[in-house]
User: Fold this.
Amino acid sequence: MNHCVETAIFDHYSRTHRACRHGQRKSDSASIYALIVANFHMSWYLFDDLKRKNTSWIQSVDNKCTVTTFKRWLNRKRVKLRYGAVGQHGSIAVVERFIRTLKDEGMRRIMVPAQRDTMRREIQNFVEWYNEARPHSVLNGQTPNEVYSSVRPRPRIEPRQRWHRRSPCAKPRTLVAGKPGDRFTLMINHHAGRSYLPVVSLQRAA
Assistant:
């Protein structure tokens, strides 16, 4: 029976899925190292933001990355290698939460493709939507890409006409789009034409 194993690079701080590798078998240490180095230009935020404390690389204990070159590479980037215990609550909670979201909001809403190439495309579509269009409560309503790229919060909508502009609002605190009391139409599109990947936006009513 065909099956697909995904190896992923995930940034805990911004909740972004940075890169992945698809295959029929679990990735070994050498292939994980190659994946990281090939995508390092995408992962500068994970390794080089010195303002953040306790930067670490978390690796599942059932697939330890033990290549000496890889460990030396982490040391040069001042990243601590830490192993997460599979099956232990909270050990790799952020990654496990993403996998749960991938299953519940993605793969379980479609007929899973039998062809691996088609499966790869479906996972890629989900990852693009997850990073670009899915807001997170833990990120104060921002998307992972917005946090990863340090994008300022978007202007908010204020439906109350008498709301004073200088009055405080809920986080993230940001400016009001247009005038208080403006009317907007809720628009729903779908990423890559997939009905289970909604992209919600507001359009100012005429």
The chain is about 30% helix and 20% strand.
